[in-house]
Structure formats: structure tokens, C-alpha cells
Amino acid sequence: MRDNDVVEDFLLRPVPEAETLSGLKIATVLIALGLTLPVFTMGSQIVLAQGLLNGSLIITVGCGITALLALVTSLIGARLRVSTYVLLTMVFGQVGGKALNLMFAAMLIGWFANVADLLSVQLSSAVSATYGVSIPPIAYSTVALVLMTLTGTFGFRMMERFASLIVPLLFAFMIYVLFLAFGDDRIGAAVLKSGDGSLTVVDGLSAVVGSVILAGVLAPDFTRYARDGKAATRSVLALAIGYPLIMLIAAIPALVVNSADTMDVMMKLGLPSLALVVLALSTWSSNTGNLYSSTLTLATVLTKWPIWRLGLIGFVCAWLAAYFNASAYFVPFLVWMGVAAIPVAGVYVSAYLVHRSAPQQLANGSIQFKTKNFGAWLLGTVVGSGSVMTAGFIVPVPALEGLAASVFAFLLLHNRDLLPANRRRSEDPTAA
Fold first, then answer.
1. Taking the model in full, what pTM does it have?
2. Fewer Cβ atoms within 10 Å of its own Cβ: the N or the C terminal residue of the chain?
3. Which residue would you say has higher pLDDT here, 237 or 35?
4. CATH number belonging to domain 3-425
């Protein structure tokens, strides 16, 4: 295997057998993407609202739902060994797939910019308040974006090595914070609190599913490196066990000091310097994934560009957003992009299951636009959007309603193609 192949990360072709990894290594990368302040904060908010027992159940069930989706998508990634975005061109056609990939690119680069911008503002404020040193946020943004670009644009192998270092370190820091919380006199009363009711059970469940479900949608980006189906299944432990553990480790200290803000928790426990380190490292590890996935999706559109140049696009866009303070203005846009992204998984999972015995039928390069599949995605997006605006039609979890609607629409639009006789006659039932 040429070194250049590894650096280029097999952007448009299947990962060869010789480059595959164990499921636990892939799980480590996925955990690194979840070790981020928004995940810490969400877990803390749910436990503060519902108490430790109920909050733990909500978090476990929410992550479990996402893990079930990730199990299916991870197995698809391990079977085809291509990224989510190559898979989309197979399922939606060359033109349809690229259209959706541009949407994913905008969303991923947008989040990459927004997270880096939030980090710079928080670091600038915290350093000024703690040490009296005033440094403009753009300086932090520049350094952070350079580091994130270095770890996000040199392929999955670089991410895996980075994750193997950062995950144990961050876990050690958070366990230390947890240790201090257990030594506090308030721990007994804190863990017995029933919660303040600021979030209902349904709201908490919706928040968990909505915030982590994209990890299930984009799982093939990482599990294409899985050695086999068992390795892909083991990687899902990151969502089923790792994410709930992350949230609960952050939530117990939050109960003790009665604050959902992880930075504030560490400050109140007398750990200002550690708070800054955790803020920087957790954002670095999680945001690397946004840039990495954005390079994969851009590769399906800019097919001749090397991975480093694709990463440079993300860097420049993010830096300009930080310089002009623009990232905060497109957060609502990014949220709606997330609503549109989730039904994609419903369609590509359905299409793959129909052709699981002959996946080559998915890769019909002569088809530019698969209308039925695109229509199923569009209907799922409409339902998901309506669910957000109405707090749910049937179940108040918009992510699940959009996902379910896309599956139902796929089956409805392909009802004749799914009959055995028609499947034998059809060369590609996913075509328009």
C-alpha cells in the first residue's frame, strides 16, 4: 500500500482490507467526538432537571436509540467500506448525491466554524478573568483552527492516533473532577435530589436523541475502516456506553455545585486552569471530526482535489467566519440543516437493505438522479421540520419522526419494486 493512499484516506474508493482497524479503535475516535462541552452540559441539564436516577435513564435510552441506528449504518459502512457521501451518490444518483453532499459540506463546515468561534470567545473571556491577560478572540481562533486542521485533514489514521492520546487524558481530567465532587460535603444531598423540573422527560429524551443522532447518520465515515461486522458492532459501544458515561461523569459534579455549565463547575471546585485545558482539548477533539467529515463530503464534488486542499477550504471558511463574527448568525440555519440531514439515513439504510445481497446494484453510475429516493428524503425532511415547529406529531422527538417518515416514504414509493417478481426483473429498483 502506498503511503500516499493512506494520507489521501481513500476518499472515493473502498478502504482495502490491509488498512482496516479494530472496533475498539474506531470507538475511541467516536468517543473523542463526544467529549465536548455541549454534551457535558446537556447531560448536566437533564440530571439537574430530573434527578440522577431519572436523568440517567433518559440519557441511556436516548443514546441507546441512536446506537440502534448507528448499529445499522455502521454495518453498512463496514460492508461497503466507503464514506457516507460516496454512499449517497450511490443511493441518490450522481447529481442527487452531490446536491445532498453540498448540504452536508455547508453544515459540517458551518459547525466547524461555529465551535471554533465559541471556543475562542470562551478562552479569551476565561483567561482575561482568571489571569488578567487580554488576548483578542481571533488569536485563539487562528491557533485553534490550525491545530484542528492538522488533525482533521490527514486521514482517519491521524484521527485515530490523536484520539488514542486525547480520550484517556480527558477522561482522567473528568474523573478527577468527579473525585473532587464525591469529596464534597454536599454530594449526599445532591444525588438524592428529585430535580427542578426545568426539562420534562420527553424534552430531555428529544434533546439527547437530537444532539447525538448525527453520529449515527455519519457512522460510515468511520466504520468503513472496520475489520468486519463484529468490529463495526463494537464501535457502536461508543454511543451505547461511552456517551452516557461522558454525560453522567459531567452531571454528578454539576449536581454538587448546582450548575449545568461545566466550566463554571470546575471554577467552583477550584480548578480554573484545568477548566481551560478541558475546554481547549475537548473542543479540539470533537471539532476535528467536523472538519474530517467535511473533507470527505467535498471530495465527492471536487473529485480531483487532494485532502489537504479540501481541509484548507474548511479552515479558510471558519477563519473568515471568526474574523467577521459571522458564525453566531447562522446557528439557526445549521440546526435546520441537521433536521434535513437525518432523513438521509432512513433512505440509504432502506436502499441498502433492499439490495443487501447485491450491493453493486446501488452503484449504478449511469443514473444521475434517483427521483424516488430523493423524494423520500424530501418528505422525511418536511415531516422533521414540521415536527420541530409543532413539538412532534406522534412522538415529540423530531429527529425520529423525520427518520421514520423517510423510511415510510421510501417503502411507499418503491412498493411495486419490492415485490419479488419485480425485483428480479429490475436491474436497479432504486432508480427513478
1. 0.88
2. N
3. 237
4. 1.10.4160.10
